[in-house]
Amino acid sequence: MIARRDLLRLGAAAALLAGCAPTKSERRDDRIRLWVAPNAAEESFWKIAVARWNAAGRGLPVSFTTIPTAGNSEDTVLSALVAGTEPDLSTNIFSGFAVQLATLGQVEDLAAMPGYADLIARRHMAAIMPGWTQNGRVPAMPIYSSPTLLWWRADILEANGLGAPPETYEQVYAFSDRYGAGRRARYGMQVIAGRAWQDRWFDFIPFYYAASGGRPYLDATRALYANAAGLQVATFMNRMFRQGWTALDFDAEEPLVSGLAAGAVRGPWDVERFANIYPETLARIAVGPMVAATPSSGPAATFSDSKGVVIFRSSRVKRQAFDFLSWVLGDEALNLLWLQQTGLSPARADLLENSRFAPYYRRSALGRAYAEHVASARPPALSEYTIDVQKIMSSQLIEPVMTGQRAPAAALRDAVAATDRMLEAQA
Amino acid sequence: MIRRAAISREAIVGLTLVGVYLAYTAVFWAYPFFWLAKLSVTQWRFFDDPVFVGARNLVRIVQDPQFLGSLWNVVRFLAFYLPLAFGGSLLVAFGLQQVGRGRAFVALCFLLSNVSSGVALSLVFLKIFSTTGPLNNTLYDAVGIRIPWTNHPTLAMLAIALVVAWKFVGYYGLIVYSGLLTVPKELYDAARLDHAGVWRRLVNITLPMLNPQLMMVLTFAILVSFGLFTEPFLITGGGPADSTVPPQMVIYETAFRRLQPSHAATMSIIISLASYLLVVLARRLFERKVVIA
């Protein structure tokens, strides 16, 4: 007969042994495991899409869960890869992180998958994919594209004699001069998004893309923005600060709500935020292109804050996972569902020509403005040194120009030289 | 039977209790410690096998301008933080002495800032220090100027020191206050008989008698300065021009953004050694034995 003490000992030993069990999950080939972005809108889309796939029995069943993170998706994906608990597919991967994962040999080259070319053609992604391709390899497939555009308070523009959002620097100067006049502090627009390295995606880089017609600012070995377009942007920023037409920061409040600034760079994700918190302000917003020295003939180039999906190299069901991916991304009905559930434009260039999406964009002027720029929006440079490149951009270019410590041309030279030195050292 | 007699019941209980602690230490301290040591002399990028590289990581780190800059930022932070910490904690301690009723409540209020979320208070101070925030708006309305609290290298570090001081000064003040309670009143009575003024009593009696508490504050302040992360990360993002980047932020970015855990491990060892050496140096320079004969 087993005494109570023995039972306790047995229980303790079992608990210890359970704690010592291997953490690596068994690789399964009877289903496709998918991680999706941890937000309600995207989760609701995947719930429907996965249910349809599983019901149709088109391939291996898919089970999905949100990325188990309390903070940053990248950290969680990285931890999972180290622990060997990563799924077969993960969404919410930005292109720079995908390149890092590819460099470390953790993700599949999707361009090598059977059916890749068909998917690109079916989803009208030919104009979008160059921004996601490095040396002919595609580490991630973009799900959506979120161009950054300038939001303007239409009522303020009108009160200052502008019937439409400004498109050129000169128009911004003239408007800012009028709007900023007077004792009360008011600024034409928010030029700098913030001090962190990732804020460059929402100021210098989109302005540079607009000024250069979407030319890249970086390749594998050097910075490419020491040119006329780069100088135009730096000069624009310099003039806005020197004239007092913008502030060093707008941390205290949402400047568009109070009219502290009449314009600011915003993405499509801000539509829902404003709809929930500042609906009255949202009703007064007019969306304009990223300003440049001269107006663009078509939709102006800008930065696209896109997220994609990767297939991990450890997956035992890569082909089946790509089949699922191909089905989800290539299906127009699901693309429309994505748009309706999340408000984020699917990364396809035919959004405004395709009759399936027309009713949605007829109802949403803001959505239409973003959809117009999906094809001309460019993702960040595909570099595993994104953080260092943009830190240099901040410290050598943006901050010296903000404070007036360096002339625009000199700051541009410094930033590019420092970036080149860093890339050379890393190589 | 013989074995049972060799290990007494008391010893078994003791070993069991100690065993839990030892197991905990082995898993959560020793294992990470040895892994850290191994990482610092190897090249590892999360997915491959660590390759021994000797002192190459160390050589690279000591030549990394961003890491060296972050160490210099610790010194700059301390230059602002120490006067704030000592001055503030002494003020709190002397103030508490003057409080009659409700002293415990006042002390609790000071502790509240210490237990409040660093993230929350950073966001509040971010708004307060903003160029377009309430502080600057008031200044602008009054005298027509704005102070670039978070956009000037020196002011940004001062702003962070102020926020951290706000969080910790109450706690430090209670430590100093506990020291004040132990100073014998007879010393002050004797000093008064000798016509010693307030300043002289402060310098010659109070501060020397408070040496253990002030040393504790100094030690805590040094440890805070090396462990700083939340406030600069949220308030300045390390800018402008990396002037407020603390070592912990460099370590985090190196490990999880640049995906260079070996370099980050080497940095963390250097930071640990630097903080230890600074504490030892401070104790050697300022610690005095307080004996009431």
UniProtKB/TrEMBL annotation, chain A:
InterPro entries cross-referenced by the UniProt entry: Bact_solute-bd_prot1, SBP
UniProt main location, coarse: periplasm
Pfam families: SBP_bac_8
Localisation: Periplasm
GO cellular component, one term: periplasmic space
Family note: Belongs to the bacterial solute-binding protein 1 family.
Protein name, entry field: Carbohydrate ABC transporter substrate-binding protein, CUT1 family
Lineage: Bacteria, Pseudomonadati, Pseudomonadota, Alphaproteobacteria, Sphingomonadales
TrEMBL record, chain B:
Keyword NAD recorded: no
Pfam families in the record: BPD_transp_1
Keywords tagged on the record: Cell membrane, Membrane, Transmembrane, Transmembrane helix, Transport
Topology in membrane: Multi-pass membrane protein
The ABC transmembrane type-1 domain, residue ranges: 71-282
Presence of the UniProt keyword Magnesium in the record: no
Subcellular location: Cell membrane
Gene Ontology process terms (BP): transmembrane transport
CC terms in the record's Gene Ontology section: plasma membrane
Transmembrane segments: 12-31, 74-93, 105-129, 155-181, 202-229, 264-282
Gene3D superfamilies: MetI-like (1.10.3720.10)
PROSITE patterns membership: ABC_TM1
InterPro entries from the UniProt entry: MetI-like, MetI-like_sf, UgpAE/MalFG_permease
Assigned protein family: Belongs to the binding-protein-dependent transport system permease family.
The name this protein goes by in its record: Carbohydrate ABC transporter membrane protein 1, CUT1 family
